[in-house]
TrEMBL record:
RGS domain residues: 1-52
InterPro entries membership: RGS (IPR016137), RGS_sf (IPR036305), RGS_subdomain_2 (IPR044926)
Pfam families: RGS
Species, as recorded: Cirrhinus mrigala
SUPFAM superfamilies: Regulator of G-protein signaling, RGS
Name under which the protein is recorded: RGS domain-containing protein
PROSITE patterns assigned to the protein according to its UniProt record, in alphabetical order: RGS
């Protein structure tokens, strides 16, 4: 995926004084391109259609949670 010139210039300017949001504009543009153009084309591509036909019917699978729970340590416990 290619970004337009104005987005490229904005990124170059933003990384001179980087922040956590210096790539947000580019990320939003790329997401939009993927949503409107690349992903719909992929869904109709020969490779995707071939793979989905070969895969068979979908099955229900149970996934493990990847979330973590951090409990507070009781007072008086040593640091890790």
């Amino acid at each position: 995926i290619n970004i337009d010139h104005s987005t490229k210039v904005a990124i170059e300017k933003n990384i001179l004084k980087p922040t956590t949001s210096c790539f947000d504009v580019a990320q939003n543009k790329i997401y939009g391109l993927m949503k409107r153009d690349c992903y719909p084309r992929f869904l109709t591509s020969d490779i995707y259609l071939t793979l989905t036909k070969r895969a068979g019917p979908p099955t229900m699978t149970r996934r493990r949670s990847r979330s973590f729970v951090f409990n507070e340590r009781p007072e008086g416990t040593a640091a890790w």
